[in-house]
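Reopening this one. Same input as before:
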Amino acid sequence: MSHSASYEYQIEAKRRREIHLQRVAETTRAYLHGYRQALDQLERQGLRQFVAVEAQALTQAVLDAEGLLATDPERARDRSQQMAWQIAGLSGAAQAARLQAEALERQNARLRAEEAARQREASHGTWEEAVGNWPDPLARELAYPDLVELRRRFFSGAQALAPAAEVREAVDAVRASAQAKAQAHRTQQAQAARAETERAAADQALRVLRESAGGSSAAQEVLQQAVRQAESLTGEPLLQALAQAQGAVDAAAVEESCRREAVRAVVLSLRASGFVVDAPYLQDGAGGGEVVVRASKPAGQRAEFRVTALGDLSWHFDRYSGAACKRDIAKVLPQLQDIYGIQLSSERVHWQNPDDQSASALPQPADHQEKNHG
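Same output, byte for byte:
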């Protein structure tokens, strides 16, 4: 007897959801790793202090997203996408802020020399306390002329001309104004460098896309299309196209993972039913090709399964005599569903030969007894 049929297969919904979440976590982890590298590079280049507030907020955002990877990968992905633009534009904003701070520092050189002379005359504890600890270099340089003017107004030599509370209030007002100006400058620079920011975000997305595509032919097709789009698109349309490409690559990866689960279930079910299973191999073709699993029994009976990434599973049993074929089918297929969670539907019988004339299986006692019932 020989029998050939095919089914549509699905991985158990819970397991498929697990595979999907694993994929989302892997992709998001790659993005977050890139963000960490960008923040570390700011530190190495001495630029982090020029965007200290933004960098600290993004560092915490990366930590929070990483903490969500194990419990809520989709939420972590959403947070990662929200910070992509900010991360991409951080380096350019920091460089622009440093250039501006350096220019202001040169302008303030004369005032600094005068201020150094006054400090040698007297040390004013209230003043030093009020103006100390300014972590933003650009805000500090923007505020310097106003601070010098305040000192002239509040101090004459070693003598304080105003209460300490009034000094602190005036310095705080200057500080707030300078910080607002510094932030406005960074925002203006970020808008001016929007094209460079978009390019940096696109480069990051392309890098993750290449790394995550893997060996899946379907994913590689999506990748090649995305690379072509990167050459022809710019700005928001490019970023949207890359986001869609990443979604398609992730979907292809999930389908491939589901196929691996199905192939593993086929192999284990065949082995449990007494078959010797050859190593599965991929046969190229449309839609990602087919994984072929071939197996045989010592008496000569053969089984072949073909599994696609599109949800099709076909099988062929041959070289049987009598009802032995039905018995093996009745062993292998239920195990796929009952033990390994592979849900089969839409059966299509392609070939069924109750009296396989090409059978070369060695005679078995049970086969002789049931010869006329297969």
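So the earlier flakiness isn't reproducible anymore. For the record, The two ends are 7 Å apart (CA to CA).
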